[in-house]
Amino acid sequence: MTEQHTEKQAELKLAEARETIRNKLALLPDQPGCYLMKNGDGVIIYVGKAKVLKNRVRSYFNGSHNGKTQRLVSEIRDFEFIVTSSNMEALILECNLIKQHHPRYNVLLKDDKSFPYIKITNEKHPKLEITRRIVKDKGRYFGPYPNAFAAQQTKKLLDRLYPLRKCKTLPDKVCLYYHLGQCVAPCEYDVEQSEYDRMIQEITRFLNGGQDVVKAELQRKMEEAAENLEFERAKEFRDQLVAIDEVMEKQKITMSDALDRDIFGYAVDKGWMCVQILYMRQGKLIERHGTTFPYYGEAYDDFMTFVTQYYSDNPALPKQILLPLPPESEPEEGQDKQAEEQGAGRADEVIASLHSWLKVKVLMPQRGRKSEVVSMAANNAKVMLDEKFRLIERDEERSVRASESLADWLGLPQVRRIEAFDNSNIQGTNPVSAMVVFTDGKPDRKEYRKYKVKTVQGPDDYETMREVIRRRYERVLKEELTPPDLIVVDGGKGQISAAIDVLENELGLYVPVCGLVKDAKHKTAQLMTGDPAEIVPLPRDSQEFYLLQRIQEEVHRFAITFHREQRAKSMVESKLDSIPGIGEKRRKLLLKHFGSVKKIKEASVEDFRPLSIGEKLASQIIAALREESS
User: Fold this and answer.
1) What are phi and psi of 606, to 5 degrees?
2) What global pTM score does this model have?
3) CATH numbers and ranges of domains, the chain
4) Average predicted confidence (pLDDT) for the chain
């Protein structure tokens, strides 16, 4: 009774929250700004920006999304918004709000660490050090470097070339570095300020890309030492030249203008984004850095949020930043002039915003060498993302062993065939469910099934589960199909109980059922089984737990993909159905003839004649579709 009362209270709170959101959506302005999504406890879980707040915020509650965005939407119980006077203000405000609140769904938009820099300290006896923090201490910072190894290798080379002090505090007598020729020993000898100034000037030149000048000077010193028969000293200079070449050997791709550039590219797949940054210094490509993270909004908007945060945390700026064009700015065959102008306008707006904030030249090249390196960054991002998913699916032997071990944990003779279910809807619209099958720990895609929910109105997860379980296993019994060794549902006690009730009390079928419960971060947290359900204490780092994570991610991906298809189909049908004179028969005829709503919209009046549609109705169809998309 207590559990039912608690569930009823939760349903009432959810209904109230939805009513609040519905009322607020009607009040959203047609202006730029930021929005803050909150969960049931009033905690800010996501911050976003928008050119038009009304359109962007409504899209979360009216559109279809990938699985990870749907998780975000399922937690939203309220939202706030802040109007700004421009997109630029919205971009900066978003960055500041993320830093202030650390929303759970935003922190993944940036790397989990800051980047390393090489610093020349501002002291009487300066030294070189590697740091990840930039403070206003009058020190000189160079970077960022894509990883600690690259920074350490460069510092190690500079330590050999320039004998600045190495110790944190001056010792009482000279150390080993002095005897190696890598320290001027200010602890025992007076060092002229001019000597420090000379070394700092040369180090600065080197770190700003002037390696050729340093190499020329070393070459001169080596030749001079050889002429004076100082062969050991000449060998030292030669070794330093070799060390420079080794550190800089990755400089393979070049541009003739010798500028410092950061080049960005990104790729998205299955709710994840990968961003690649190529570092070009003095016109030479020296390093790259890639990071992957789940994204929750529009792909390009979240990519730009990443870029903004990157430079907020890494203030050492290049001379130029190269970015990919917004998707709608990329030229498409048959694209109308208005769409082309709108896309170009968005690109210009992004460029102007970043330039006015960073005071750095920002380009979105469409052709030529710069466009090629942006494409190279995007291709690297795609390769990195593909590798991520291939790693998930490799090593089939481990999957088989995990499936066998899972049976031991559950006290079952075997778990060869697993059938897993997940439901998907956005505020009760187009409710669907999906089933995936894993055999011996591997996905068996030909066995996957999709279900349109028929008997349930609104987002009732328990009743949806009951309907789908009933339909699936009525068919298993009727067609004498092989039942699974284990059924997995997305959820805890309520979902398990609903599935078992249908199986045992309605169908007389006894198949073990377990549920996968998510934690506060919407990651697989616990395995529950039985009725009443009990937690199975699987280790979080075990192969069995990893297998269950894969199953949950796969069924969720499959369900949300099906939901998106159904929602897109219903939107297409509703567009045509809203036009007077178009019934179901004509709608099907139009789609069959033209292939898509887009093709219908782009057609001329004459193109409708083979369908026996007159000039007047054809004009109405074209006008209605173009008006809706404008």
Assistant:
1) -65, -30
2) 0.41
3) 2-105 (3.40.1440.10), 117-209 (no CATH), 261-391 (3.30.420), 396-567 (3.30.420.340), 578-629 (1.10.150)
4) 77
